[in-house]
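Q: I'm building a small set of examples for a reading group on sequence design. Run inverse folding on the following structure and report the sequence directly after it, with nothing in between.
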């Protein structure tokens, strides 16, 4: 597979079935769609910036029963192949996944309708983590600023519009969370919320352990809570993306481990933007049964 983009310029984007994606993902779409899942694969799925890395770190610690030495074996993107991600200085997530021995824990941001069908055919377990859209938007905006593997975000006002209209990579937040929500009862999907994890990590980690099939005693749970707290992960080079070349992710613009809070959107949204966002949200989320917490 040819990996053309090298981080010198900003990533370009194109559409896959109506969803914006980085161009290398579009160019390899047929191979991504044909990805062959294995029955013991575990898939972590999120809309970008919903807490993917946090979930990955928790899952790895659960699988390794709290053994931090084992989770320090490699950076996040090496431990968990990102199946639709193809970056020259980092590699092809697809090839990485194909070469990985089982059992694999994989990552995707794909909306439900773009999930390679073999994950469902093989009845794989899937963990979906969702985050309230206002904080998700703010986090995505700052991530665009620091990450050349995404297009430049434009001004805050421009990015706000792009997010609301779904003209961002991996498409509309609303469609993403709704698509996976509707699918959760027909498949082996555990649907989690960032805000719940923040509010009561021990409870949510126990739930994750049960889903994965690991019974964890209290001391292991406490250890996992500690090692996956924002402050500890921020200092962990295997979980904070500091090993990615600076020409791709520039943490001096905005660190990957930025704030990790619920309600930071209040420091960004104007009153008018908030009203517009709420009106749009109520219209698009009505009748879904999905509720998000925007503050504590
Ligand atoms: P902020 O930009 O709001 O700080 P992803 O891993 O999906 O890219 O999501 C990144 C977001 O999750 C960032 O949000 C990051 O700070 C936050 N995050 C990562 N680890 C976290 C943790 N242990 N606790 C809380 N938030 C965390």
């Amino acid at each position: 597979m040819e990996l053309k983009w090298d981080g010198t310029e900003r990533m370009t984007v194109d559409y896959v079935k109506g969803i914006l994606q980085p161009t290398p993902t579009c160019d390899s779409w047929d191979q991504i769609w044909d990805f062959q899942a294995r029955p013991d694969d575990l898939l972590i799925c999120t809309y970008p910036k919903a807490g993917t890395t946090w979930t990955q770190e928790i899952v790895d610690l659960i699988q390794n029963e709290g053994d931090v030495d084992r989770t320090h074996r490699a950076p996040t993107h090496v431990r968990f192949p990102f199946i639709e991600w193809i970056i020259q200085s980092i590699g092809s997530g697809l090839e990485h996944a194909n070469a990985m021995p089982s059992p694999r824990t994989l990552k995707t941001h794909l909306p439900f309708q773009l999930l390679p069908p073999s994950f469902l055919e093989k009845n794989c377990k899937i963990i979906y983590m969702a985050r309230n859209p206002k904080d998700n938007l703010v986090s995505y905006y700052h991530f665009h600023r620091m990450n050349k593997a995404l297009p430049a975000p434009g001004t805050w006002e421009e990015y706000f519009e792009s997010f609301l209209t779904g003209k961002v990579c991996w498409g509309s937040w609303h469609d993403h969370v709704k698509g996976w929500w509707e699918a959760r009862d027909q498949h082996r999907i555990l649907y989690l919320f960032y805000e719940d994890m923040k509010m009561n990590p021990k409870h949510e980690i126990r739930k994750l352990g049960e889903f994965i099939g690991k019974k964890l005693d209290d001391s292991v749970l406490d250890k996992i809570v500690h090692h996956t707290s924002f402050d500890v992960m921020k200092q962990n080079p295997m979980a904070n993306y500091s090993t990615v070349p600076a020409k791709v992710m520039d943490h001096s613009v905005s660190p990957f481990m930025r704030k990790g809070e619920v309600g930071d959107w209040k420091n960004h949204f104007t009153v008018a933007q908030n009203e517009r966002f709420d009106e749009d949200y109520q219209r698009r989320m009505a009748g879904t049964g999905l509720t998000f917490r925007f503050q504590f």
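The pocket of adenosine-3'-5'-diphosphate is lined by residues 46, 48-54, 135, 139, 142, 228-230, 233, 257-260, 264 (CB under 6 Å).
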